[in-house]
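Methods — Computational structure assignment.
A single polypeptide chain was analysed. Its primary sequence is given first, followed by the predicted tertiary structure written as structure tokens.
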Amino acid sequence: VQLQASGGGLVQAGGSLRLSCAASGKIITRNIMGWYRQAPGGQRELVATVTSGGTTNYADSVADRFTISRDNRRNTVYLQMESLKPEDTAVYYCRAYLLGYTDTYNYWGQGTQVTVSS
């Protein structure tokens, strides 16, 4: 499985961006797709996840500003980011967690930089 993330960039505080993550390869039906981020000097942290059934989960810091969604036909997950803040600046990574019958598989995309200027 390969994950290709895109959509990052430079935006002013209060602006918006939409990230996309296209998955290719053998995608197991039961899966959790998610976005994580890592700021300079910080640890990678969860931003949002969405299950194959559509259940979403958000970090408290983004819950009222970001929306995660997925298009199963295109094997693509999106992160719509609104009201961006300088503290949202980070490299954003897409993750696919696949649940097989007896094994689980974990894949990461290459990351896309999001920079929010004040």
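Note: The mean pLDDT is 95.
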